[in-house]
Structures are given as structure tokens and as C-alpha cells.
Automatic annotation (TrEMBL):
PANTHER family: DNA POLYMERASE III SUBUNIT CHI (PTHR38767:SF1). It comes from the Bacteria. One of its GO terms (molecular function) is DNA-directed DNA polymerase activity. SUPFAM superfamilies: DNA polymerase III chi subunit (SSF102400). Its EC number is 2.7.7.7. It holds the Pfam family DNA_pol3_chi. This is DNA polymerase III subunit chi. It comes from Bordetella petrii. Gene3D superfamilies: DNA polymerase III subunit chi (3.40.50.10110). Keywords: Nucleotidyltransferase, Transferase. InterPro entries: DNA_pol3_chi (IPR007459), PolIII_chi_sf (IPR036768).
Length: 147
């Protein structure tokens, strides 16, 4: 069963997603980034190029011919199709407001949530949807606050 991790309290959701993508890349882990909102996905794509002056995270859109050989693939469509011939260890990073389709085929699903009230509300809906599907999501506090 897919492990689902929510990281709450990100000051900037896309920047935190870039940092997560870099960590996955440096760990040698393949990552599919899903977001049905094309504008948000394009903003994430641009940020991956510029979020850190000394780092490079190789990434392409899912329809790029290099996608099967690139560690980070971005898609607004079916994330399973973007994963290609993944070995079952591919991770999925969701930047959409809704649950991604076909997420059960991934080893892990990452959800990054900012302190923005609308983002938090959408995350609560996704959390409940995952629970209703039989998952037990894990929560992580990026801000280091104690509950």
C-alpha cells in the first residue's frame, strides 16, 4: 500500500516542493510531480531551474522524449503514465488541490501544505479522502512547531 506523507507548515509550498524534489534526486529516487493546474505546474517547473544557485534537479515534462530517463517528471495528466516503466519504487509529489489519480501505484505520495488557509483546507479534504480509501496518512511539521 502506498505510504502517504503530509508535510504541513511550509512557508512556500512550491519552494518546499523544489527542496523535496532535490532530496529525491540526490537520493537516486525517481519522482513524478503531479498537478492538473497547468499554471501551477509551469511555476514549479520555472522554480526548479532557479530555486538554488548551486543545485540542479534534472526534470522534464512527461511528454518529453527524455522523460523515461529523467529522474523528475512533471505531469498534469495521469501520473502512472508519466512514471513509465518505473520499478515500483517511484514516488509521487502532489501539487494539486485534489488527490492525484492512480496514486496507489506509487511507493510513496508526498503532500506539501503551506500555511495558506485555502491550501490547508484543501489538504484536510485530501487527508479525509485518503483515510476513506483505507490509508493512514503520516503528518510532519515543517515549521517545527509542537502540537
Amino acid at each position: 500500500m502506498t505510504r502517504i506523507d503530509f508535510a504541513f507548515g511550509a512557508p512556500d509550498r512550491l519552494r518546499a516542493a523544489c527542496q523535496a524534489a532535490r532530496k529525491r534526486y540526490l537520493a537516486g529516487q525517481r519522482l513524478v510531480v503531479y498537478c492538473a493546474d497547468g499554471a501551477r505546474l509551469a511555476a514549479f517547473d520555472r522554480m526548479l531551474w532557479a530555486f538554488d544557485d548551486i543545485s540542479f534537479v534534472p526534470h522534464v515534462l512527461a511528454n518529453d522524449p527524455l522523460a523515461p530517463d529523467t529522474p523528475v517528471v512533471l505531469t498534469a495528466a495521469d501520473p502512472q503514465a508519466a512514471a513509465g516503466n518505473a520499478d515500483g519504487e517511484t514516488w509521487l509529489l502532489n501539487l494539486d488541490d485534489d488527490c492525484p489519480p492512480a496514486y496507489d501505484g506509487f511507493a510513496r505520495l508526498l503532500e506539501i501544505v503551506s500555511d495558506d488557509p485555502a491550501d490547508r483546507q484543501a489538504a484536510r479534504q485530501r487527508w479525509r479522502a485518503y483515510q476513506a480509501a483505507g490509508h493512514a496518512p503520516h503528518s510532519h511539521d515543517l515549521a517545527g512547531r509542537t502540537a
